[in-house]
């Protein structure tokens, strides 16, 4: 699984979604992350198709993720939702399919359906999103397949260290949504000082911090210069002291919903 991808959350215009995805793939991205609830799977699929034609890449060169929405959770409805996502994307399979949120009383039946999809070879890997430690512990009691990924909100103000340690122990990859805290740390003195030291942008420093901690990132952007910038992360390293300084910014602060208290 690539360590850097493009997220398309809140890109509701199909044409903009398509152009963003095409631009990302053109500029070296291989991971694209969407979801049924984003309502842009069609545009994402069009962008993938255009990019493959433009670049000469093959479908298997890309890693495409989507997610089953809360209202579609349950065994039969998950199987149906998966096919609907495939149809909208115009693909024959997904590389990764995630449970979007841990809906109480439903996520275990949803997981059984996802295991079935995996066993039938319809998806290459399955995982979860927004699961806390206790959700994972509950799921693992009955799971035949361990989730390969847990995609959660994570950034320097929400480092999720206990969840990260639990995930590493169970060989579950952590993937960060909102890895840049929606730009909320671009003016932070610690971040800007480190960025100046490396002649990089604050966004690049934050994304590099994630990568050095073994976390996958899917920053969202619709502008090609920013997409290029967000992917340009492999020609510098943060020191132990710089990593520790960024770690110290944690305040357990969420910008999105709390996985233990959501009503959608």
Under CATH, the homologous superfamily reads: NADP-dependent oxidoreductase domain
- Per the principal axes of the C-alpha atoms, what is the gross shape? globular
Question: What is the helix fraction of residues, given as a range?
Answer: 40-55%
Show unreliable segments.
none
CATH topology: TIM Barrel
Order of helices and strands: EHEHEHEHEHEHEHHEHH
Overall average residue pLDDT? 98
Q: Tell me the CATH architecture.
A: Alpha-Beta Barrel
Pfam families: Aldo_ket_red
InterPro entries: AKR (IPR020471), Aldo/ket_reductase_CS (IPR018170), NAD(P)_OxRdtase_dom_sf (IPR036812), NADP_OxRdtase_dom (IPR023210)
Family: Belongs to the aldo/keto reductase family.
Domain NADP-dependent oxidoreductase: 13-250
Please give a structural write-up.
By secondary structure, the protein is α/β, with parallel strands linked by helices. The protein has a single domain (5-247), classed as Alpha-Beta Barrel (TIM Barrel), CATH 3.20.20. Helices cover 42% and strands 12% of the residues. It has ten helices and eight strands. The protein has helices at residues 14-26, 41-55, 75-89, 107-119, 133-142, 161-169, 189-198, 202-212, 224-231, 240-247, and strands at residues 5-7, 31-33, 63-68, 96-99, 126-129, 149-153, 173-177, 216-217. Strands 1-2-3-4-5-6-7-8 form an eight-stranded parallel β-sheet. β4 (96-99), α4 and β5 (126-129) form a beta-alpha-beta unit. α1 packs parallel to α2, α2 (41-55) packs across α3 and α7 crosses α8. The protein is globular and about 55 Å long. The two termini are 29 Å apart. The relative contact order is 0.13. The mean pLDDT is 98. Residues 13-250 form the NADP-dependent oxidoreductase domain.
